[in-house]
Model the fold of this input.
Amino acid sequence: MSEVYPSDNELLNILDDSETGVEYITTGKSPYYLEFRKLLYRLILATKRANDLRVFDEGGLDIGVKGGKFWVGTTLVTYGGSSGNTLADNKANIYVYLNASGVLVVNEYSQFPSMSTTPHLRLAILTTSGGDITSITDARCNYYIPSGV
Done:
């Protein structure tokens, strides 16, 4: 995908995005606020899966994890989501992941475990300091863990 915007004329004549199906608001379409809400609705639908298994800050040292699914070999594992997962304070790296059974692990401090000995789905690396979460780095990149790993 190009990092450069199309010309103004091209932008004004785009009807939809072929990859996502998101429709652009036609110039002069009325009522605009309704068309804008429709656009937001379509964008949310197009990006909804990006929220699966996302780690988020709940304030203080607590994190939540959005629900989602991932594969371990031929088994589909469902994680219902969680909240109020309290992290240790003053840690440079907290490696948060789901094990192959779908259990959330929040007390790994040196590195993610070896995939060959502990199949898991990496979610995030967090840093805590002074009773607060200071950074969250998204580590979701693969929703499939090969069987027999």
